[in-house]
Amino acid sequence: QVQLVESGGGLVQAGGSLILSCAASGRTLSGYDMGWYRQTPGKEREFVARIIWSGDTTAYADSVKGRFAIARDNAKNTVFLQMNKLKPEDTAIYSCNARQLLDYWGQGTQVTVSS
């Protein structure tokens, strides 16, 4: 069982930056593909970014490509999401996902971008 805890969310002005962290416990993350997803009220959860277990390959939603960057530190059992040039439409609850046959989710952290 993997427990995931996100942090780093908050209120930021448009054009600003935030770094989200996802700390894992219970299992080492080195064998898991990790991802970030986001959700706003009344909408389905949306894929944001993913990084495979080795860190060699990443993928991004078109809406964040060039602005967000996902990274992982397997030694610290932590995954990061660097978010730059934030837009009001990036406002959402951001959740961390660990995947290895099963999916594990954190509780999420709120990101609010003001215009």
Helix percent reads under 10%
The percentage of residues in β strands lies in over 45%
**What's the pLDDT, averaged over the residues?**
95
Judged by helices, strands and strand pairing, the structural class is: mainly beta
**Poorly predicted sequence stretches spanning 5 or more consecutive residues:** none
C-alpha-based Rg, rounded:
13 Å
Distance between the termini: 40 Å
Principal-axes geometry comes out as globular
H/E element string? EEEEEEEEEEE
Q: Main sheet, how many strands, which sense, barrel?
A: 7 strands, mixed
Task: Give me the count of strands.
Answer: 11
Q: How many helices?
A: 0
Describe the structure.
- By secondary structure, the protein is an all-beta fold.
- Helices cover 0% and strands 56% of the residues.
- Strands 2, 4, 5, 6, 9, 10 and 11 form a seven-stranded mixed β-sheet that branches. Strands 1-3-8-7 form a four-stranded antiparallel β-sheet, with no helix packed on it.
- The mean pLDDT is 95.
Write the layout of secondary structure elements.
Blueprint: E1 3-7, E2 10-13, E3 18-25, E4 33-39, E5 46-51, E6 58-60, E7 68-73, E8 78-83, E9 92-100, E10 102-105, E11 109-114
Parallel strand pairs: 2-11
Antiparallel strand pairs: 1-3, 3-8, 4-5, 4-9, 5-6, 7-8, 9-10, 9-11
